[in-house]
């Protein structure tokens, strides 16, 4: 995949979250297989023009949700709209949707190009589009080779090319980084950012939470078919942020602990420091109030929780 | 539907698809030549007698070439069943349905292409086998005037037309089995088992009823173009057999369409 000239955008782009019509909106969406509830009353909203991460442990219902959104399986209950169209009419929105579901699948004895041409004929896209997407994922030089000779990473890139074929407004990718080497992952990240710059929406399911943290500006966390969280990624991470307060004198730490508790935050003593679970912007107020109370020799550091930590905390909370 | 048809045509480049056609051509030519050799070498026996009697007549060529008819049916059934079931097995069906969510359009376009492929394979098979037998006959100084007469040609075309009808019915049966089984192994196994076992077994105990069964009634159609001693001629008459065959075809299409439209695609 062609690299973007600006690979340094690693911060969450929460400020860029646009407030437009949702690209995906579900209300109580459910899918039951017999007694098993694969998706259980899922309600979420993905704003258009965002990269939305879709995370959850194995068996949480991510792939079933994606299949529901693509009209491959029928919901047992609930409703959804994709690009403003009802889920019950996939022919209205799927021409504007590209998808890579689980491991990409192809006809192994056909070439990469022919595999894409099969889908281009089906979607009525021009043949030139096949060349464009092959170029985009840097597979042009191997396009005539049978897919059975491709490496895992090449198949993955061909899968991404397949998803990009309709020049989609909404791209649904299920584990797109599977089998990619580190360079491929960086290129994938750049590609996703470029798509966002083109106001396209990307719905991205992945187990690589560190990767998601770098590109997503919206998050949906799924557990046992239900959304544990659906909203701006920044909101989720802020909830788990910590202030670490250090001081040489225990009395000063006691003062700070009292101020934090009075403000309603949980304080955990840790050797010669305190950990305070609170929003990061509380640090300036804490510093001011501590000085007013006489605690003048303290050091306040901020500690931002990773998506992985936040994810595990949410899961733990769910189990408890 | 035409988009699905054109898309399907591209997939015929696969060696596994072409191999089915190749096996049909080679096996039919081999069996036809074997039959020709048996007849011309002076072999005798109760099974050969009707063939020997038909050999010099305008129906002689199709009698020889048509000996592989059951094999052609089996190969066509395997080709269609495995082709459709493989979309589930390989997981490619989900790619297709994302690009063409109107499921009946996809299935009908795919079937149209498969039927075209089966028909072309059959045409090549019969043409090559017939050419082989004509060359072999000329080489041995056997007269082929009756075979190439206008009546001989009409008989040949009638056989081809009825064989095409038979294979359309068999292909639609294959489509139904593939849609229900959704796995190559299971679909081909069920299809072969059905063609080879139940209808024959039931015929042994209930001959009157078995004449209405799908494979049997479809096989009556090309069988009706052979001399009655070679057969199988439809005991219910050609027109009735044709109507029943069409009813079976409609049934296969309707059930396949209803099931395919409602299926969850989890592959």
How does the SSE layout of this entry go?
The complex is a heterodimer of chains A (320) and B (267).
Chain A: E1 22-33, E2 36-47, E3 51-55, H1 62-69, E4 77-82, E5 85-86, H2 90-93, E6 97-100, H3 112-123, H4 127-136, H5 152-164, E7 170-174, H6 182-197, E8 201-205, H7 209-215, E9 218-223, E10 226-232, H8 233-239, E11 242-247, H9 250-262, E12 266-270, E13 273-277, H10 282-292, E14 298-303, H11 307-319
Parallel strand pairs in A: 3-8, 3-9, 6-7, 7-8
Antiparallel strand pairs in A: 1-2, 1-4, 4-5, 9-10, 11-13, 11-14, 12-13
Helix pairs in contact in A: 3-4, 4-5
Chain B: H1 2-11, H2 15-40, H3 49-54, H4 60-65, H5 69-89, H6 92-99, H7 103-139, H8 145-148, H9 150-181, H10 184-196, H11 198-205, H12 207-210, H13 214-223, H14 238-262
Helix pairs in contact in B: 1-7, 2-5, 2-7, 5-7, 5-9, 5-10, 7-9, 9-10, 9-13, 9-14, 13-14
Largest sheet of chain A: 6 strands, mixed
Rg of chain B is 20 Å
Q: How does the overall form of chain B come out from the CA principal axes?
A: globular
How many DSSP E strands of chain B? 0
Query: Please, what is the average pLDDT of chain A?
Result: 82
Describe the 3D structure:
- Chain A is an alpha/beta fold and 320 residues long.
- Chain A is built from eleven helices and 14 strands.
- In chain A, the strands form three sheets. Chain A has a six-stranded mixed sheet with strand order 6-7-8-3-9-10, with helices on both faces. A four-stranded antiparallel sheet of chain A has the order 2-1-4-5.
- In chain A, helix 3 crosses helix 4 and helix 4 packs across helix 5.
- The radius of gyration of chain A is 23 Å and the shape is elongated.
- The two termini of chain A are 43 Å apart.
- In chain B, 79% of the residues lie in helices and 0% in strands.
- In chain B, helix 5 packs antiparallel against helix 10, helix 9 packs parallel to helix 14 and helix 13 crosses helix 14.
- The longest helix of chain B is centred in the middle third of the chain and has 37 residues.
- Chain B is globular.
- Chain B starts with a helix and ends in a 5-residue tail after the last helix.
- The model of chain B has no long low-confidence stretch (mean pLDDT 90).
- At the A-B interface, helix 3 of A face helix 1 and helix 6 of B.
